[in-house]
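Exercise 7. Given the components listed, write out the predicted structure of the assembled complex. Treat all entries as one system.
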Amino acid sequence: MAITLRGVRHSYGDRLVLRDLDLMVARGEIYALLGGNGAGKSTTLNALLGFLAPSAGTVRICGVDPVAQPAEARALLAYVPESVALYEHLTARENVDYFLALADAERGREAVIDPALDAVGLPRHAWDKRVVGFSKGMRQKVAIALALARHVPVLLLDEPTSGLDPQATLEFNRLLATARARDVAILMVTHDLLSAVDIADRIGFLSDGRIEEERVAAAGETRFDLNALHARYAHPQVPA
Ligand SMILES: Nc1ncnc2c1ncn2[C@@H]1O[C@H](COP(=O)(O)OP(=O)(O)OP(=O)(O)O)[C@@H](O)[C@H]1O
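Answer.
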């Protein structure tokens, strides 16, 4: 399994925030993690990133413990935060090249950069422009191009579609589909039900530090029942 959280507990002081959290994401799967403010979504991502050591349970990135083996775990994942930080004075291409070098990617970086920028649909005229004027959507494309160029098996995303207009959201979702087709396991923390319904294979509701409910995409056009999901999300105590 690419992403594993099993029986994970974490407290801040005496406040238990993750209580026996179980969550798994396979390669080639998109999992949307929904949950109200304070449910523990960021804490979950921080556990996967190795920024916190849970008091109980197992966290693994492709079998690697991100606390015990941080460098190995980092080499297996790409993390795209809500605001993507890039070097503003560098071009899109230079940013990918620079971060690839930091990630210690093998030589021959030129050979992987252009195909990755192409795969994420960043317009060619933007490849050699400084990223300083780039929109959120364009920055995300650069970040995901980097993930594709690194061939990481795991992609973690924090509220990727917040602030994106509907067209940019659809484009972003297509981008995720590209990564999924390359066998990447994708965990997306989001409040964006529409985006989750459009692209996720599974949707999990995190509440009070554990997955309270999971829904799996159905085959066919109506993958999820949006109204039922909305009712569930907006009124967690009322079963939908
Ligand atoms: N460093 C910290 N120290 C103490 N409490 C914290 C810390 N980080 C988070 N918390 C608390 O833990 C709980 C879960 O926080 P977390 O940020 O994981 O939730 P979230 O689901 O990401 O929320 P949001 O949607 O608002 O970002 C919240 O009650 C929060 O106040």
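Discussion: The longest strand covers residues 15-25. The chain has eight helices and nine strands.
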